[in-house]
Design goal:
The protein is α+β, with helices and mostly antiparallel strands. Helices cover 19% and strands 46% of the residues. The strands form 2 sheets. Strands 2, 3, 7, 8, 9, 10 and 11 form a 7-stranded mixed β-sheet that branches. β4 and β5 form a beta hairpin.
Length: 162
């Protein structure tokens, strides 16, 4: 019975997510917005299923449903285009005074690895995108250097919105 309940909840969350991704959700659709910020991306980066071209973006982090299903919404400020929703894969405490996106480069491709939110004292990670080696992704999370994976890391400042 418990397993069936979990499957039903998971299915309903997936349907909600797919519906919002297809229609283009807005930050106002978040039940609770815990963090809002803006950043400038100087290169093309893969973030979940989205490919973000260089530009200025807004992001919102919060609860999408009453059950506490958390997402990050990203929109292109310059174009006024909704880019989509990204589901965090993990969350932990973050220390520090800066808020930033951690982008990992493997070869000449960039991927968003995590979002550090100093004001909230939290860091959220994102699932490894298709095409990124497991080794590079793990090394990025451990902040270790690995020349075999040709890994580089860049921090993109995120300015909290007032």
């Amino acid at each position: 019975m418990n397993r069936l309940r979990k499957l039903i909840v998971l299915a309903s969350v997936l349907v909600t997510f797919l519906g919002l991704a297809a229609t283009g959700t807005k930050a106002q659709n978040l039940r609770i917005t815990e963090f809002a910020g803006k950043f400038s991306l100087p290169f093309t980066a893969q973030w979940g299923a989205m490919t973000l071209p260089p530009g200025n973006y807004n992001l919102y982090y919060g609860d999408l449903t009453a059950g506490g299903f958390r997402v990050v919404e990203v929109s292109d400020e310059d174009q006024g285009i909704r880019r989509g929703v990204v589901i965090p894969s993990g969350r932990n405490d973050a220390k520090g005074e800066e808020t930033f996106l951690v982008c990992v480069f493997e070869g000449n491709r960039a991927y968003v690895h995590s979002l550090k939110m100093a004001a909230m004292g939290q860091s959220i990670g994102f699932a490894r995108p298709h095409g990124v080696s497991v080794e590079a992704w793990i090394m990025a999370g451990n902040k270790a250097h690995n020349t075999k994976a040709r890994l580089a890391e860049t921090r993109i400042p995120v300015v909290p919105l007032k």
